[in-house]
Design a protein that fits this description.
By secondary structure, the protein is of the alpha+beta class. It has 15 helices and 16 strands. The protein has helices at residues 19-36, 50-54, 61-64, 85-95, 136-153, 171-184, 191-199, 210-217, 228-244, 289-292, 307-317, 339-349, 363-373, 383-388, 410-421, and strands at 40-41, 47-49, 69-71, 77-80, 101-110, 122-131, 158-164, 249-250, 262-270, 279-285, 300-306, 329-333, 354-356, 377-381, 390-395, 403-406. The strands form 3 sheets. Strands 1-5-6-11-10-9-7-8 form an 8-stranded mixed β-sheet, sandwiched between helices. A 5-stranded mixed β-sheet has the order 13-12-14-15-16, with helices on both faces. A hairpin with a 5-residue loop joins strand 3 and strand 4 (77-80). Bound molecules: histidyl-adenosine monophosphate. Residues 83, 85, 111, 113, 119-120, 123, 125, 127, 129, 256-258, 279-284, 286, 302-304, 306, 308-309 line the site of histidyl-adenosine monophosphate.
């Protein structure tokens, strides 16, 4: 094949059937879980004032390196959203809905990352946020919802890691201890981590570089620096998860790539995927974010799940195949136009998935198309049938003979044939 004039940009993908069908079905399962738990769907715009996203943390890669930003013709500084939590908080601050406000969402996000399998520049997330409640039961409810969603897809190899990052007030003492720890052995630390240490010390804990492994493993943990309240809240979360039978591992050095987190943080890892891209979802509390966006001091908690990565995990486990998208009835029509149009329309209105060939193809070519479609039933109409007000109905997969029926019996005859097949 000749090289095409244009190709999809790096880190972007064209989605075609059956992947699009699979995606739709995944979102509908998520929507079902979310609405059962009292969430309503919220769809913020794909781009916002860049300052909305700067609140995710100026020292994070997502904001400092990966934002797609531009100035619009009105001179506004705009960015494509890299995630949706900040947007949902902006919606909340702007509209002040009744609390607790439970919102779920689905849609694309944009991060200018180095593309690789499972890491794209445009990727979809499904997610849920609850704003306006401090209750750790809400954290548990959210985690359980995400976990049930994975189970409904058929995934069994997904583990849940949880940690508490404490309150903002717990942070300075801990950060001091952390920085001291790394500085004592600064020469042993990788160059990248030394740089990270100067910008965002917590993120050093996320280093996957072998050179840093020993120092990271020996680093002080936040659990030892939590306030009594934060510690009690975390106990409530683990007790709640136990009560619901959701299994988890406490990961005392789990930190996340976004800066707004407080208290509960968690990540879902698909053990069937390569470690570098095995985070299929994550979330946590962000108790100061709404206020940072000009809203009230209301707390929030939520999660987002990566749709593409979740589907890669499904592939790796051999679960959640694309749904069947077959045709029920193929119309083969050599009678004059618009006979085929009318027949197909009638069949579709009766609820059948119906299709046909175009461009005045011969009877033979149309029969070939009918075979290729795998439709269990073909309706055949030529000039003779038109003249006698009948249609010929042919079962295509060997259940009975072709038979002529009166036109007004077409729908009921096909319904019977298809019913018998099921
Ligand atoms: P995040 O960890 O940045 O959190 O992203 C959540 C999930 O989105 C990841 O676990 C991953 O599956 C997927 N993801 C992230 N970046 C990419 C990428 N470049 N390509 C493919 N998939 C990707 C958030 O976005 C937070 N807003 C989650 C949250 C909600 N926290 C509280 N509420």
């Amino acid at each position: 094949m000749a090289t095409p004039l244009f190709q999809a940009l790096p880190g972007t993908r064209d989605l075609l059937p059956p992947e699009t069908d699979r995606m739709r079905s995944l979102v509908s399962i998520f929507a079902d879980e979310a609405s059962q738990a009292g969430f309503g769907q919220v769809t913020p715009p794909i781009f916002e004032d860049i300052q909305v996203f700067v609140r995710i943390g100026e020292a994070t890669d997502v904001v400092s390196k990966e934002l797609y930003s531009f100035e619009d013709k009105g001179g506004r500084q705009i960015a494509l959203r890299p995630e949706q939590t900040a947007s949902i908080c902006r919606v909340y601050a702007e509209r002040r809905p009744i609390t607790p406000w439970k919102a779920w969402y689905y849609g694309p996000n944009f991060r200018q990352e180095k593309p690789q399998k499972g890491r794209y520049r445009q990727f979809d997330q499904v997610g849920a946020e609850v704003i306006g409640s401090h209750d750790p039961d809400v954290d548990v409810e959210l985690i359980a919802m995400a976990s049930r969603f994975y189970t409904r897809l058929g995934l069994t190899d997904v583990s849940l890691l949880i940690n508490s990052l404490g309150d903002k007030a717990d942070r300075p003492r801990y950060l001091e201890a952390l920085v001291n720890h790394f500085e004592r052995d600064i020469d042993a630390l990788s160059e990248q981590s030394r740089h990270t240490l100067s910008l965002n010390p917590l993120r050093v804990l996320d280093s996957k570089r072998p050179q840093d492994a020993e120092l990271v493993a020996a680093a002080p943990v936040l659990a030892d620096y939590l306030s009594h309240e934060a510690s009690a809240a975390f106990d409530r979360v683990t007790t709640g998860l136990d009560a619901l039978g959701v299994s988890y591992t406490v990961a005392p050095r789990l930190v996340r790539g976004l800066d707004y987190y407080t208290r509960t943080t968690f990540e879902f890892a698909a053990d069937s995927l390569d470690a570098a891209q095995n985070a299929v979802g994550g979330g946590g509390r962000y108790d100061g974010l709404v206020a940072d966006l000009g809203g009230p001091e209301d707390p929030g908690v939520g999660f987002a799940l990566g749709v593409e990565r979740t589907l890669l995990a499904c592939d790796a486990e051999g679960v959640f195949a694309a749904p069947e998208r077959g045709i029920d009835v193929w119309v083969v029509c050599t009678a004059e136009s618009p006979a085929a149009l009318v027949l197909v329309d009638e069949l579709r209105q009766a609820g059948f998935r119906a299709d046909r060939a175009f461009d005045g193809r011969s009877m033979k070519a149309q029969m070939k198309a009918a075979n290729r479609s795998n439709a269990p039933v073909a309706v055949i109409v030529g000039d003779d049938e038109m003249a006698s007000g009948s249609v010929s109905i042919r079962p295509m997969q060997g259940q009975g003979e072709q038979a002529a029926v009166r036109r007004d019996q077409m729908i009921s005859t096909i319904a019977e044939l298809l019913g018998a097949k099921e």
